[in-house]
Write a structure and sequence with these properties.
This protein has 195 residues and is mainly beta. The chain folds into two domains: 2-100, no CATH class; 103-193, no CATH class. It has three helices and twelve strands; from the N terminus they run E-E-H-E-H-E-H-E-E-E-E-E-E-E-E. The strands form three sheets. It has a five-stranded mixed beta sheet. Strand 11 and strand 12 (174-177) form a beta hairpin. The longest helix is centred in the N-terminal third of the chain and has 8 residues, at 30-37. It is elongated. It starts with 8 loop residues before the first strand and ends in an 18-residue tail after the last strand.
């Protein structure tokens, strides 16, 4: 790709959960922000996962992953496909809603999940994805522990900063957030939990 000297990279994704359209970047450089802003004012700055196309090509050119909602929704993609260059001037802070990935949450591979109340190691609420990109308060419940109540969600650092506090509280069998947070990419599709 370096030999081709691309001026931008756009990696188009869909989600399994109910999410607004948003863009993800690995650099806060103005050209990256401009590219992301063409798609959405909601921008997530991330360091992990490292294996995505936008992360791999970010050293070569401005790169963005655009999250286009569920399969079949293409609104916003057309604007990004019509660009021919990227401005170098700063992006006004008022033009973007910038978030940072602090942690990646996964279900352990040996655990089961349900969203309909049936018994499973994690009995998530049926409307879990309605929390996406909303600020939720401490003690907001994601559901209940089922089975033998021994499993816990895996919390992986979303960047190079170590996780120093618990993200979840499991008191009384509830699965509740331990502090205010803004989740993204929550889904009620079991395949989206990387089981």
């Amino acid at each position: 790709m370096s030999r081709e000297a691309p001026y931008a990279n756009i990696d188009i994704h869909n989600n399994t959960g109910n999410n607004p359209h948003y863009a993800c970047i690995t650099s806060l450089n103005d050209r990256y922000l401009h590219l992301a802003r063409l798609f959405s004012r909601t921008i997530v700055h991330f360091k992990k996962p490292v294996g995505v196309q936008a992360a791999a090509l970010a050293a070569i050119c401005p790169a963005v992953t655009i999250e286009c909602g569920r399969i079949g929704s293409a609104a916003g993609v057309e604007a990004a496909l019509a660009i021919s260059h990227l401005p170098d001037h700063p992006v006004p802070a008022s033009d973007v809603d910038l978030l940072r990935t602090c942690a990646i949450i996964k279900v352990p591979s040996e655990a089961s999940v349900s969203f309909d109340g049936s018994d499973a190691d994690f009995r998530f609420r049926a409307d879990l994805d309605r929390f996406n990109f909303s600020e939720i308060e401490e003690r907001t419940s994601f559901g209940f522990l089922g089975g033998n109540r021994q499993h816990r969600l895996l919390v992986i650092p979303g960047d190079d900063v170590a996780i120093t506090k618990p993200y979840f509280d499991y008191s009384g069998g509830w699965i509740s957030v331990s502090g205010p947070t803004i989740p993204a990419m929550l889904t009620v599709d079991p395949s989206g939990w990387d089981i």
